[in-house]
Amino acid sequence: MTHKIAILGASGYTGAELVRLIATHPTMEIVALSADRKAGMQMSEVYPHLRHLDLPTLVKLEEIDFTDVDLCFAALPHGLSQALVRDLPKHVKVVDLGADFRLTDPAEYEKWYGAPHVAVELQKTAVYGLTEFYRDDIKSARLVAGTGCNAATVQFALRPLIASGLIDLDSIICDLKNGVSGAGRSLKENMLFAERSTDVQGYAQGGKHRHLGEFDQEFSAIAGRDVRIVFTPHLVPVNRGILADCYVQGDAAAIHAALVEQYQDESFVTVLPFGQMPGMGHVTGSNLCHLGVVADRVPGRALVVSALDNLCKGSSGQAMQNANLMLGEDETTGLMMAPVFP
């Protein structure tokens, strides 16, 4: 059976990554690609590395006929998916890669994104798309909200530890490094090569990063009480990848054992031997997440490190993992490629 797929926002990095992944998927066929500012162009003009693929011409959103579309990926800027998904034909399943449906509380959405949600009825039904923890709900969902890439990286490290009560919930500190593709493809002065290539810079510091809304929602639900972590992200001069250093209070050996138990049957999450640390370059271009644990020199403190590719496991790969489940396919289909190295 062939599943007809539409990608909305195909000219962005996550849209292009979806095209790359679907190109080798045995049962997905791309039938529509939207990109308003580049409507009328061929995908090969926007992304020459996709020149070998036979793809539909880029069109405006309103030009897409969704009659025969089985599933659509919405890789749109924040705020644009709400009304669009609300008005889609009910038979179309949706994986939203943006932030519009990640937070279940309308007040929390408005707090973090500065505007009221215009599709509250849908917001309450969306399934959070961290596949390894919500796969049963995702299988029967019509709408799945992809996680933030930073949020996914940290959650793979911390969710099992919060659930098992192995760490102090009031002293979690996460220091994260993010490749520049996480800022998107639109032109920004501070993303110029001359300004980024030899610099490391924090952003959204002091509790201002929007992914904190996801941490608050997910970690508090697991713990049954408010959990408010310290989180500081940094832009580093690499194209793609995320590395999260999570500093926690707890027994390092027990922490490592809990992560091994949690992920021992997972295809995409690997816990390294105790004391070994992952790197961004170990997962580039793949749907893999690597986790490492090391004991601190002070007993009772530990470092948990999580690494993944922000465009793949942190976004488009995770989206396809979810789509596979929604369409009744094996979760790993089209996603078992090895990382690219060096």
What are the salient characteristics of this protein?
single chain; 342 residues; seven-stranded parallel β-sheet; seven-stranded mixed β-sheet
Question: How would you portray this structure in words?
Answer:
This protein has eleven helices and 14 strands. It is an alpha/beta fold and 342 residues long. A seven-stranded parallel beta sheet has the order 3-2-1-4-5-7-6, covered by helices on one side. Strands 9-10-8-11-14-13-12 form a seven-stranded mixed beta sheet. A hairpin with a 5-residue loop joins strand 13 and strand 14 (301-308). Helix 1 (13-22) crosses helix 11 (312-326) and helix 6 runs parallel beside helix 11 (312-326). The longest helix has 15 residues, at 149-163.
Structural class: alpha/beta
Main pleated sheet: 7 strands, parallel
Quaternary structure of the protein: single chain
Query: Stretches where pLDDT falls below 50 for ≥5 residues?
Result: none
Percent helix, as a range, is 25-40%
- Order of helix and strand elements from N to C terminus: EHEHEEHEHHEHEHEHEHEEHEEEH
Mean pLDDT: 95
In short:
This protein is α/β, with parallel strands linked by helices and 342 residues long. It has helices at 13-22, 43-46, 81-87, 106-113, 120-123, 131-139, 149-163, 193-196, 212-223, 252-263, 312-326; strands spanning 3-8, 28-34, 58-59, 71-74, 93-96, 127-128, 143-145, 173-179, 201-202, 230-236, 242-249, 269-271, 289-295, 301-308. The chain has 11 helices and 14 strands.
